[in-house]
Each structure stands twice: as structure tokens, then as C-alpha cells.
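Run: sequence + 2-acetamido-2-deoxy-beta-D-glucopyranose -> complex structure.
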Amino acid sequence: MTRTSWISTLLRDRTLQLPGLRRMSPCLQIIVAVIMPLVLCVYVPLTRAQPGFVSIDCGSSTTYNDTNGITWVPDTGYTFTGRNYAPNPKTTNPLDSLRYFPENRDKNCYVLPATPNNFYMVRVSFLYPDFLNSSFCLEMEAQLAANITFQANSLTIPQVYEAYLSATSDTIYVCLARSTTTDVPFISSLELRPLDTNNMYQILAQGNYLYNDYHANFGSATPLIRYPYDPYDRTWQNNIPGVNPNSTQLAINTTSSVVVDFNHWNKVPEIVMQTADSWPKGESVTITTSFLPDYNKNYYIAFDFAEISPQAESQSRIFSLALNGKTVWNSINVALDRGMYMADEYYFDDIMLNSTGSFELSADPTSQLGPILNALELFVLTDPAPNRTFPTDGKPSPPLCTLQIVRRD
Ligand SMILES: *[C@@H]1O[C@H](CO)[C@@H](O)[C@H](O)[C@H]1NC(C)=O
Ligand SMILES: *[C@@H]1O[C@H](CO)[C@@H](O)[C@H](O)[C@H]1NC(C)=O
Ligand SMILES: *[C@@H]1O[C@H](CO)[C@@H](O)[C@H](O)[C@H]1NC(C)=O
Ligand SMILES: *[C@@H]1O[C@H](CO)[C@@H](O)[C@H](O)[C@H]1NC(C)=O
Ligand SMILES: *[C@@H]1O[C@H](CO)[C@@H](O)[C@H](O)[C@H]1NC(C)=O
Ligand SMILES: *[C@@H]1O[C@H](CO)[C@@H](O)[C@H](O)[C@H]1NC(C)=O
Ligand SMILES: *[C@@H]1O[C@H](CO)[C@@H](O)[C@H](O)[C@H]1NC(C)=O
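>> structure
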């Protein structure tokens, strides 16, 4: 499996999903998404403000709002090299245009505005279905890199890379580097999303990056949830690989509000916490890690629970959590620990996962109900990044990808 495959699947879902939703008002979209009474539309925050979002439709020449209410802008002002190209009328904005870099430069950068020490998510998408073979390198802040490979005419699913990071200065660099004379790097879209620096993903403050992220929304009938339901525009998927196919989970959901109020809390959207999978009395559930795109890496893992089953008002639900076969938390009792309809989170930030790793939720022998799970987040965690160093021209420091520099400008 390639490192991008789960997000690619997700983007394909998104493409399939949008045409149906586009024709509906935002209010109707919510009804379709969660099957709620009309009155609830009043309570769902439909802010279109997108504070701090930067959404760049590379190669585009127009500014427009998409069906999620996100405002996309051309790349003018964010990068100074490359050429526009709109190769693919078969896909929709923002992926139908791109910027490509045929010049003999070893590196082409986009410069995004940032506030030092604030946390951000950066999302980069590539789609170039009907042109040359291409292979090049993506770098973020000269700390994180990935090799991007495209084969001509073979690709209709975008490759998407996300990184969560703390800005070290007032800019974030996203660069594309060519590896051979014939490579033509390109980019389809680039998104910057501010996170809540005081509460979310506090591990980022130590200079670690989180990438290859996966956000699972258990028990939901909605394939994909993102902005505006998640104000941070994370992408929550309901097709969750790795769950033991023999387990007899029951999807449950509630229209009651679920309180998400913790300090150091990753702010899982309420709509995600309002659905869960639950398991019968006495049953354990195992999620294997064979689906991960990256093995033998350190992971940051967050489990999110909220008791949303009315049954739990009169019956106990107590379970333990094991990672890689080792119990890491005993006697989790969400209704007792937090109260009904209150979110709770358990996170672990240095778990080495390989292809045979597992997470297991096991009911205590005395528990009257089996385990429950509302959401799960997984990220690969880098070592703390060294401070960015500035060569004299202020450009980011040496490339991480193996570069065969042809000629410098
Ligand atoms: C996009 O939406 C914003 C907020 O509603 C609005 O102010 C702006 O005019 C819209 N832009 C376009 C290009 O439609
Ligand atoms: C693209 O790569 C494939 C697989 O390596 C190769 O068969 C094909 O000839 C290449 N096409 C071009 C235009 O280079
Ligand atoms: C990219 O590919 C080159 C050449 O195969 C390799 O040396 C380098 O480690 C790769 N970089 C990443 C980040 O995978
Ligand atoms: C909530 O549960 C009902 C009944 O099982 C189901 O029809 C509906 O799709 C679920 N809603 C969500 C958002 O999963
Ligand atoms: C599911 O059950 C079948 C039949 O009992 C068994 O062969 C298989 O190994 C089980 N799968 C898992 C992942 O436990
Ligand atoms: C995976 O990691 C576990 C410990 O976390 C170890 O016991 C096991 O041997 C590893 N398996 C592989 C295939 O590396
Ligand atoms: C990075 O810079 C900060 C502030 O200048 C300093 O406190 C810290 O020790 C540096 N970290 C490394 C790894 O050099």
C-alpha cells in the first residue's frame, strides 16, 4: 500500500459525493448528512468565515467559493515560478487546474503566511491524469519530504499529503523539487488550516510533525465529514479498515448534543462524537494495523469516547484498552468518568506500530455492555524537527529529497 492510499480513497469518495450535495442548500446538506429534524439546522454552526484558511487552487485564474463554502484563490502571490495548466475538464475545482514547473530549477516553493509557534495543518493535492510521467519530491518546511510519482494516463485519483506542524517563523514553505532533468514537478492545490494551538495536538509544541493522518468516524452513515462540520477541516471517514470482520458491532447515533469540553482536547467535532460503534456484552474488538501506510514508525494515537446509548443510563459499560497486546488503560467507564453525552479522550504519543500491531477494546467481566468507540485518530509522529536554518537568501535549508541538481538558475 502506498502512503497516500487512504487519503486517495477519501478524495475519491469526496468526488463521488459532491455532485449530489451541490444542488442542496447547506441546511439540506446537514439533514442528508445526519438525518436530523429541520430544527437542528439552527444549532449547527454554519460559519462561512474560515478564519485563517488559505486555499490555493494552483493554476487557476479565478477566486470562487466551493460547495463547502471554502473560498479558493489563484496562486498569484504565493509562488513566483512555474506555469499554469488546466489539463483536466473531467475533474472539478480545485483539481482541474495545476501549476507545473518546467524550468531548470532544483526547487520551487510556495510561501504561506503563518504566526510563529501556532499550529497548522497543510494539505497538498496532486492530480495530473493525462500528461507526462512525472516523479519529484515534496518538502514541507525542509523537515518533511515525500517522493511523488505519477505515470502518464494512469491516474485519476489525486495524491494527497497532509502535515500537522508548529510554525517556526511567519512563513511556512511548501516546496517541489525535481530529481532528474526530465522531471516536471506540479501541484494541483494547497491548503493551510490553523489549528487551536492552546488545545489541540500539544505534541506539536515540541517541534514534532504529525503526518499520514487518518481520522475514523465510527458508527456514521456519512462517508466523509469535513468543514464546515469540522471547523479545522480535518477529513473524518466512516470506512474503517482493520476492524475484525467477525466482530458484531452495532452502529449507534444520537441527536442529543455531546459536550466536547476538555483541556488538551483535540476538538473532535460534535457530529463525529454523536455516532459510535458499540459491541455486545462480553465481546472484545480488535483493530489491526495492517492497513497503515507506514510501518515501524512512531504513531500518535487518540481514542475518543462518549456514552451516547440510552441503555448505559441503567447498565454499566466498563472496558480496557490495549495497544500491541499490552493493556494501557483499565476500567474505562465513560458514563461514570465523564457523564452521559460527554466526550472523553485517551491519547498515546510514542507507540511503534508495524503491520502486525493491534488495538483492542475488551469488556470487563462485570460489565453489562460491551465497549464503545466514537472516533480514532492516527498520525505518524516525526522526531522533533531541528530549527529551520536560513541560508543567506532566506530560502529554506537543504533539500531532504535526493536531488540530482541539473543547473542552478
Ligand atoms: C464567497 O463567500 C463569501 C462569504 O459568504 C462572500 O463574501 C464572497 O463574495 C464569495 N465569493 C465569491 C467569489 O463568490
Ligand atoms: C511512463 O512510464 C511507464 C512505466 O514506467 C512507461 O511504460 C511509459 O513508456 C512511460 N511513458 C512516457 C511518456 O515516458
Ligand atoms: C525519495 O527517493 C530517493 C531516491 O529513491 C530516496 O533516496 C529518498 O530517500 C526518498 N525520500 C523519501 C522522503 O522517501
Ligand atoms: C443513525 O441511525 C439510524 C438508524 O440506524 C440510521 O438510519 C442513520 O443513518 C444514522 N445516522 C448517522 C449519521 O449515522
Ligand atoms: C473470522 O472467523 C473465521 C471463522 O471462524 C476465522 O477463520 C477467521 O480467522 C476470523 N477472522 C479474524 C480476523 O479473526
Ligand atoms: C511488531 O511489533 C511487535 C511489538 O510491538 C513485535 O512483537 C513484533 O515482532 C513486530 N512484528 C514485526 C513483523 O515486526
Ligand atoms: C530552537 O530554537 C529555540 C529558540 O530559539 C531554542 O530554545 C531551541 O533550543 C532550539 N532547538 C534546537 C533543537 O536547536
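>> summary
The longest strand covers residues 343-353. Confidence is low (pLDDT under 50) at residues 1-47, 390-399, 403-409.
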